[in-house]
Structures are given as structure tokens and as C-alpha cells.
Sequence to fold (110 residues):
Amino acid sequence: MPRFRVTDATLDVLEVLLSGDDELYGLKIAKQIQRPTGSVFPILARLEDHGWVVSEWESGDRAERGARRRLYRLNPDGLSQARILLAERRGEQATIRWNPGLRPRWEGLT
Fold:
């Protein structure tokens, strides 16, 4: 199980990462869980440091939309660990927000 502190905010971030959305970036995650970016970005960094999350800079023309975004995804180990952790901590509540059969896309992520 995790070797890091798991808060309610961490569980909220994991639920969003399990949602299957292919374009998850820090601000979008923060808005979805209604938490400040000052708590979401450190959680994402901690999850990445512990090998649950991978991230990459968004590709494409920045002039079309603005600044590049850093996109976040659970890696295969993080995916299974997040499911287990959410089931243990939130039980049936978690199944309302995420689909346990979902598989994220891994285009270009290492």
C-alpha cells in the first residue's frame, strides 16, 4: 500500500485520475474536486514521486489555446493501487465516481 500520507484530497485526486478523462491537468483536477491548486499540485507531485502517476507536457500549438498544460495519468501500477485504496477507504462511494473497468490511454507516456 502507499508509502505516503493519504488525505481526503489525495483520494479525490485519485478518483478524478480514474475517471478515464484523457486530458487531465492540475487546474482541471482542482476544479473537478473543488480544491485549491495549492493542495492538488503537491498531491500530483507526490503521486508521481512514488511511481503511481506519469505526466507529460501537452503537445500542440500553444497559440491556439495559451500556455501548455502538464497532463497526468495513473500508470498501470498506480491504476491498480488507486482502485484498491479507494475501495478500502471509500467503499461503495468510490464506485459512483469511477468506472473500475476503465483503462486509460497510454499514448507516448513512459
